[in-house]
Amino acid sequence: AKNSGRNAYRLYTPKMNVEYDEHLRLEVHLRRAVEKRELQLYYQPRVDTKSGQIKGMEALLRWIHPEMGFISPAKFIPIAEETGLIVTIGEWVIREACEQNRRWIDCGFPPLRVSVNVSGLQFQQANFVELVRSILEETGLDPCYLELEITENSMINDVEDNIATLMRLREMGVYISIDDFGTGYSSFSYLKRFPIHALKIDQSFVRDVATDKNNAAIVKAIVQLAHHMNVSLVAEGVEDEATFRFLQAERCDEVQGYFFSRPLPAEEFERMLAAGE
Ligand code: C2E
Ligand code: CA
Ligand code: CA
Ligand code: CA
User: Fold this and answer.
1) Residues forming beta bridges with residue 150, ordered by sequence position
2) What is the ipTM of this complex?
3) 3-state secondary structure of 41
4) What are the distances in angstroms from CA 173 to CA 45, 147, 215, 259?
5) Which N-terminal residues, if any, form the signal peptide (predicted)?
6) Which ligand is nearest to the CA of 237?
7) Residue range 172-200, pLDDT digits in tens
8) Are 42 and 265 in contact (CB under 8 A)?
9) 69-71 and 54-65: which strand pairing?
10) More exposed terminus of the chain, fewer Cβ within 10 Å: N or C?
């Protein structure tokens, strides 16, 4: 009994040690990645459900490390958030997405809206609105071609401040959407006060919507909610035709997913735009 009792105090297991080491190692590399420009943006089209035309694209961060190779955002975004690096990285993301979008408009492609993921910490920065304003000025992108995707969870603290920030962005002409809708601590009383343009329903509800009765019920309810609130509804994670047909029948406004295209590097996205003209 004496012996087994010893292990009860071992809160720190060798496995945790390995995870901690990997975490630290990634953190060091991530700092360098920002300086060495190892981060890239990929773009995934958002498609108008009715016309089938590309309405915009979501910019998604990619980290391609020279030795470690491709590192998933699911792995490095949480580290970037914990360390605060997400503020610097997030600023780069907005600037890069706006510059790229401006270039495409200058090339003569029909103007599209680029949407960018904004993490809670970044959104809470006191100068966030001014940062967005100055990036739009520097890049010369019309604010109506930028959309910010923010999760419900990043907005539940300091709700009044957050609403004020959203109002200022909206007055500037920037679009705002709630990302991963349905997975966070959403409260309808807040939701109706958020000055937003779109809800993005999380892919966990979209998946198997054509066969899963519960998901179908949830998606139908959220489409109704969005339309009654006068905001558009975007479904992400659309992987097959059956899912697309279901969303079309339910009058979901926009769809995004592998069924249409995977996220693509800027050059490939541009080729797709050129081919579609
Ligand atoms: P998210 O914002 O919900 O982005 C959608 C994720 O779904 C992306 O994963 C996208 O590649 C993936 N996806 C798109 N279509 C499909 C599909 O049909 N099926 C499946 N299974 N997946 C699909 P990704 O690119 O790995 O990004 C993961 C998350 O990392 C994002 O989720 C977002 O929360 C975060 N993230 C990515 N880029 C940024 C960024 O620039 N800033 C911040 N703060 N977070 C970012
Ligand atoms: Ca997103
Ligand atoms: Ca999402
Ligand atoms: Ca997500």
Assistant:
1) 178
2) 0.97
3) strand
4) 21, 9, 34, 31
5) none
6) 1
7) 999 999 999 988 877 777 788 899 999 99
8) yes
9) antiparallel
10) N
